[in-house]
Amino acid sequence: MAQTAPPERKVAGNVVTSERDPAVRIDLPKSAHYVGADRWVLYGIADCELHVWVETDAQRNVRRLYWVQFEGYLPSRPDLHHTYDSPKHATMNGMDFYVDTWARRKDAATDSGSDREHIEALMHAQGYRMPEMMYVRLVHLLDKEKRKELMIIYGEDLAPSGFSAAELGEGGKAHDQEPGIADATLERAKRDIMVKPLN
Predict the structure, then answer these.
(1) What percent of the chain has pLDDT over 70?
(2) How many C-beta atoms surround the C-beta of residue 111 within 10 A?
(3) Distance CA 9, CA 106 (A)
């Protein structure tokens, strides 16, 4: 596949529609602003297409982030399968998602060539600034082959919680607060992101 293949999912305002892998419509809050899309071959092994929306303050500081990604290993790599093992799951309109949560420091390193690097490039190109955030990652695997996924990452500015990512992290003074904050963030993600199968 050419690395210049354009994104194929259709976006209209706060809605992204995918005709395949999987066939879904995803509705995001009306207050979310569409930043843009990218599509490339991730690490040389997977066709990756992502779309991102944000809610910001007047200074373009991100308050909420919505990151929707469609990904599938290339046919040239039949040996590869996703290996998500999180014991936590969520169901959205009958679709099962693996759930992971984490707080990210503002100075955390970004892996070269990663999907996050592509997200940050899109954001920085439009002058958005990312604070420390609490993230929820929802991953739906399309079938038992586990070669294709729909991934939705929802992020919220940590400042309203009163804690920093370091304080909530392993060994931090507020580490015991992290599960409650993460669970509340997950509930808001499930409330505000609507995933609907097309068929």
Answers:
(1) 98
(2) 9
(3) 31
Q: Tell me the C-alpha distance between 118 and 110, whole Å.
A: 10
Query: What tokens does 178 get?
Result: 């992290």
* CA 118/CA 40 separation, integer angstroms: 9
- Adjacent-strand bridge partners of 16: 11, 26
The maximal CA–CA distance of the chain, rounded, in angstroms, is: 48
96-to-85, 88, 99, 138, 195 alpha-carbon distances in Å: 13, 10, 10, 9, 11
**Token pair of 29 as six digits:** 């809050």
* CB 183, CB 8: distance < 8 Å: no
pLDDT digits (tens, 9 = 90+) for 125-173: 999 999 999 999 999 999 999 999 999 999 999 999 999 999 999 999 9
The 10s digit of each residue's pLDDT in 57-80 is 999 999 999 999 999 999 999 999
